[in-house]
# Entry
Amino acid sequence: MRLTIDLDGRERSAEVDTRLRLVEALRECFGALAPKIGCGTGDCGACTIEQDGLLVKSCLKLAVAAQGSRITTLEGLAPRGELTELQCAFWEHHAFQCGFCVSGMVLSARELLAREPDPSEEAIRAALDANLCRCTGYQNIVAAVRSAASARRAR
Amino acid sequence: MIATPFEYLAPESLGAALAALAEDSEGTAILGGGTWLVPDLDSGARRARRVLDLAGLGLNRIDRGEDGSLRVGAMCTYTQLADAPSPLLAMMAAQITGGAAIRNQATIGGSLVAARAQSDAPAAAIAARAVAVLASAGGERRVGVHELAPRRDEILVALELPPPAPGNGYRKLKLGASSWPIATAAAAVGPDRTIVVLGGVSASPIRIEALRPEELTVTVEHPFEDALAPAAYRAAVAAPLARRALEDALRRCG
# Structure
């Protein structure tokens, strides 16, 4: 069927098979490669996107059910290639190794900072507890989120 | 990609959904938040000729009666429940593993219908004395959540909760931040009734009509077992967890 969505600020349309999960359709039919296919069971968070303003795991959704929705992936955060403050903090703190989890990590951290501008260490860890880093680079990721929060407060 | 082709139906009214379900109830999978069904369809654990999406039915409302009773739509997410005026459902929802994304997606109705041993929702809903409202083309019926076993032609549309007990406690044991629970205990203490319900330790929740914490004993006859904890571990942690939840509830009672 024809699926039309707002993807990272642009209206996009593609033919999708009913059997595709949303993450598969985003990657294969729309070329949005930031969300990754990890566990496929909602545990690892690599497929995390924002849909209609809410953080969701796109491996747990049918693509056809996303008709008309507004989707933001990691690529939508820096449409002109200028990294956001949060992304810069990830860069500066070397908060990724292989990079597989980074899309989900950044989106989950962004959701936290929108909700809680001055999060405690515990809140940062809780907000990221559904995003697995297989390189176990958690310390630097938490440091990046902490630093992005203080940079924001300093402004 | 899901291996078997299916027809995707997204009705816009409960009547249309029930009529569609009645046409092929055996071959239809009902889609709530998708957190159980979509992985099951993908792995082939579940096959369906039709997938019936409940998203368009408006089953995501929480209505509070004047007496403090609550009607919770089956499609309410944990994010919604975390702010709901039901202490037990709110405490349970706030502690769901899977982060903001799962709390935004997973629904209370889906968890109760899936009725997995390790799920958080059933025990808390039973302790809150929730009644399930089931609809089919033939009409509506109500059953306590502890007896919930929907027929294939039925849709769970809502939960009805009496006014909350004055004292409530909820404890969850998990050994890793991103882990499923090993055990949960939900306690409600009121003037006429005290109940503790254990989740995660056996195939279905264990209800203990109690008592005082020091009198509380638990026998888990057929403990649930998974990669996180063996049966003996679950059987051993059940009573202490139940006791702690009950102590919390009593303390909040004043």
About this structure: The mean pLDDT of chain A is 96. Strands of chain A lie at 2-7, 10-15, 48-51, 54-57, 70-72. The CA atoms of residues 93 and 144 of chain A lie 6 Å apart. Residues 138-154 of chain A form the longest helix (17 residues).
